[in-house]
Predict the 3D structure of the following.
Amino acid sequence: MGRSDASTDRDVPADRGSPPPEVAVVGGGAVGVTAAADLAARGADVTLYDRGDLGAGSSGRAAGVLYDAYAEDVDAALAARAMERFRAFDDTLPGFSVTPCPYVIAVRGGDPDAEAVPAMVDRMRGHDRDVSLVDPAALGERFPLATDDLAVAAVADGAGWCDPASYVAATGERARREGVTVETDTPVSLAGEGPGLRVGNAGTGRSGTRREFDAVVVAVGAHTSAFLGDAGREVPVVPYRVQALTAGVGGGARSYDGPMVYDATAGAYFRPHPTGLLAGDGTEPVPADPDDYDRTGDDWFVESVSATLRERLGEAAVEGLDVERAWAGLCTATPDGDPLVGPVGDPADRVFVAAGWQGHGFMRAPAIGEHVAEGVLASLDGTGAGDSESPWIDAFDPDRFDGGEEFEIAEGMSVESRARE
Ligand SMILES: Cc1cc2nc3c(=O)[nH]c(=O)nc-3n(C[C@H](O)[C@H](O)[C@H](O)COP(=O)(O)OP(=O)(O)OC[C@H]3O[C@@H](n4cnc5c(N)ncnc54)[C@H](O)[C@@H]3O)c2cc1C
């Protein structure tokens, strides 16, 4: 997985006489736009479709928290590659920047999750992630945070934040420069078996124009289950609602320039933001309808985040809390918390899916998009998912489920989720 230079490498097709494969990427979020650019950079003839604008889905509503603090080996490798590419894009993509910023995981006294943190940090360090266990008092000395009620904390120093919409826009421009045809305001649907699409009029009952491709990549985020289900492919990717807000803090001071903090016991996080801070939590563990959910933040969410900020930053910050905007968006859950990435259904259909990020899709998008590009091209070259040289990741096999599973939606950032074997 991965290359040293994020933006300039090419996989030149072995046979220069044959036409390049025609690949459709459906979904212009962070994952789809990266996959489209990376496919084109490797020689494919790519058309990227979005039913709205690029970034119209979850990617345009994400918080932009980036870290590589994962305990599981595949996750850690993907996240490391994603951070490497984010940093490279900071130099090479006009309009995109990453702000380095430590990421603190804090667990309060009395929270049983505290016991899992040292082993979790050991596993992260075992994958060469720059994560350390920190005594709460030492944390309070290093950062402007209240730490008296904490049992344990960890600091990931290889982290940072960015504006997700700017990543999608800048990568969309990179895709165009690589030769991708970008079709926005163009809903599509799968046209039966094989890599064909009905372009336009999807969901309206009218047929649209049929177009055949050599492969179709489905990166439609919260619409994944409905999109594939309409073509008879059942996958358990369940959308759920999460919330975030931006606010000025501390009266006149407005800005927050401390670390990013995930208060695991409260299930809330915050990070610096150009207008003060950005904070989020509000995971609703119930399925949401991607075509009909409330996109505004709830009052209870603002109150609950304010309480966490009061506890971590002190009363003064919250007294001056000036909420600019509170919003909701969708994340996607799977039965085992791992995403679905690879061929879905009969490999001969050449339909590939990339979805089910459990709240971590944006920060892994540069690596996942690259992985999808390499996987699709290897598959078109005849490398099966089960072959030893296949780049697809077994743990992410889209066909590991029946599709009809019922399961509880688990919050993806929790210590339990991160520490699981
Ligand atoms: C409030 C909030 C905060 C978050 N914070 C973070 C964070 O800090 N870090 C992180 O890693 N993740 C975060 N996430 C999760 C992150 O947003 C997602 O995991 C990620 O954006 C998913 O990207 P995607 O490209 O898979 O999907 P999306 O960005 O949802 O893109 C899917 C696209 O498919 C298009 N589409 C759907 N159906 C069709 C169709 N039929 N035809 C054509 N196009 C179609 C949609 O219009 C959409 O643009 C957050 C999410 C929310 C809501």
User: Anything to note?
Assistant: Residues 73-92 form the longest helix (20 residues). The two ends are 21 Å apart (CA to CA). The mean pLDDT is 91.
